[in-house]
Write a structure and sequence with these properties.
With 461 residues, the chain is of the alpha+beta class. Helices cover 28% and strands 32% of the residues. It has four domains: 139 residues, no CATH class; 92 residues, Beta Barrel (Elongation Factor Tu (Ef-tu), domain 3); 71 residues, Beta Barrel (OB fold (Dihydrolipoamide Acetyltransferase, E2P)), CATH 2.40.50.100; 101 residues. The strands form four sheets. It has a six-stranded antiparallel β-barrel with strand order 2-11-15-13-12-16. The protein has a four-stranded antiparallel β-sheet with strand order 3-10-8-5, with no helix packed on it. A four-stranded antiparallel β-sheet has the order 7-6-4-9, with no helix packed on it. The protein is built from four helices and 20 strands. It starts with a helix and ends in a 34-residue tail after the last strand. Helix 2 runs antiparallel to helix 3.
Length: 461
């Protein structure tokens, strides 16, 4: 009897312990399966919608100095500091940059000068010959006048009469020949002068001078190098006229070029000065578009001040064109517009009002300004859906979105007030049996997931 009583007691204790274990397991499993939501606060602030693009810092005006004659570089000039011309040298207009061997050109100049002297001598000879021809014409004319008075008679033979007339005509023709010889000699003088001038110019071209005040940003020759000037002048130096004013040549996609206007504000950064933002304005849009792999881009010239001298030629610039600006408007994180809950997370009271909430909301991308890197004008505001926490569940709030700066989006309409808490992500703890991940990102907010890492099977639909 006593043994039976003890057995009953043992059985009751075992049942009590088993019930306690089951109760503990259920409570623990219920807590483990609870969803933790991450929220963000709706705030008022300023938004600037921008278009991002990359470009290159360029000098505002660059002069390519070439050689007009062929020859060997024998020396470089001196810069403002008395140092030999090199990269970064400051030069002034008419300052000597380089010297080309001029031996051949000196010979050509001397030969042209001798040809000019010869031509001048030929002019003098022609003039002297003309004077002789005139004297002979005068003598022949007097003889002919006397012959005409005597006439053809016994005193003057017919042959003598004809000889005087012929001598007169020949003398007159010789005068014309002498005058033509003078003109020919004078033309030869003009030609010789042109040849001499050309030879002197070529001799002068052996000295390469700077056409402007500026800075040498590229030296493309060395002493001893031979330059050959044929159809194209060889480039020797590249001079930036003024490095205090620079340009940024930015390639803008054809889809964004319609938002770029002259005078538009632009900010940009360069890798040489991390964290420092430079400002500029749009100068003009070049119309000669380029196509690379079926992508059409236009070059936009952005003018910026470089009084500090920090910006160096050919730095890569990461630019942001200011398209639109809003002040003191309601703003929400883009993640709130991208996030979409699982069906079991939606409040039972709100399920009938949010049919299809398991799908990606319309504000999560496409025409919704929240998912774009550049802004959307408020006149073309898009509808979107955001979610607020209601106990252990969430409920939807329909809004109208405006411009976006890539991380925050303007709210231009909807039942949303400043200070509201919006759900941007959720965390689902792992179950005790290890059948699920300990953390789960939303379907629309998968930007934090590594696409190359092995993925566990999803518990979603």
């Amino acid at each position: 009897m006593k043994r039976a009583f003890l057995n009953v007691v043992y059985i009751v204790l075992i049942l009590i312990v088993a019930g306690a274990v089951v109760l503990w397991y259920r409570n623990h499993n219920k807590k483990a399966s609870a969803v933790t939501f991450t929220t963000a606060t709706v705030k008022k602030g300023n938004l600037t919608a921008t278009i991002g693009a990359t470009g290159t810092v360029e000098p505002e005006e660059v002069i390519d100095v070439g050689a007009q004659v062929a020859g060997r570089i024998i020396a470089f000039g001196k810069d403002k500091n008395g140092k030999s011309i090199d990269y970064g040298s400051e030069v002034e207009a008419d300052m000597i940059l380089a010297q080309i061997d001029d031996a051949i050109y000196k010979v050509d100049a001397a030969q042209a000068a001798a040809q000019l002297q010869l031509a001048n001598a030929q002019v003098a000879t022609a003039q002297a010959n003309l004077e002789q021809y005139k004297a002979r014409l005068d003598q022949a004319q007097r003889d002919w006048e006397r012959a005409k008075k005597i006439g053809s008679s016994d005193a003057l033979a017919v042959s003598a009469y004809d000889a005087y007339k012929t001598a007169y005509d020949v003398a007159k023709a010789n005068v014309a020949v002498g005058e033509a010889a003078i003109h020919q000699a004078e033309a030869a003088v003009a030609q010789a002068k042109a040849s001499e001038s050309r030879a002197q110019m070529n001799l002068g071209y052996c000295v390469i001078k700077s056409p402007v005040n500026g800075v040498i940003i590229d030296r493309r020759v060395n002493i001893g190098q031979t330059v050959v000037a044929s159809l194209n002048a060889p480039s020797l130096f590249l001079i930036a006229k003024d490095l205090k004013r620079m340009q940024v040549w930015i390639a803008v996609n054809e889809a964004d070029i319609g938002s770029i206007k002259s005078g538009q504000t632009v900010t940009f950064t360069v890798d040489a000065y991390p964290g420092e933002v430079f400002k500029g304005t749009v100068g003009k849009v070049r119309l000669n578009a380029t196509m690379t792999q079926n992508v059409v881009t236009y070059t936009v010239e952005v003018v910026t001040d470089n009084s500090s001298g920090k910006l160096l030629p050919y730095l890569t610039a990461n630019a942001q064109f200011e398209v639109d600006h809003r002040e003191n408007v309601l703003t929400v994180p883009n993640a709130a517009l991208r996030w979409a809950p699982q069906p079991q997370m939606i409040s039972p009271d709100a399920k009938t009002k949010t049919a299809g909430s398991g799908q990606r909301p319309s504000g999560a991308g496409g025409r919704g300004g929240a998912a774009k890197d550049r802004g959307t004008d408020a006149s073309t505001a898009s509808k979107g859906t955001i979610w607020v926490q209601e106990g252990n569940y969430v409920k939807s709030v329909r809004v109208r979105t405006g411009i976006s700066d890539g991380s925050m989006t303007e709210i231009v309409g909807g039942d949303l007030t400043e200070g509201a808490e919006l759900v941007v992500s959720e965390t689902i703890p792992a179950r005790q049996n290890g059948g699920a991940n300990s953390s789960s990102a939303s379907a629309a907010g998968a930007g934090t997931t590594n696409p190359f890492a092995p993925q566990m099977p999803s518990r979603r639909r």
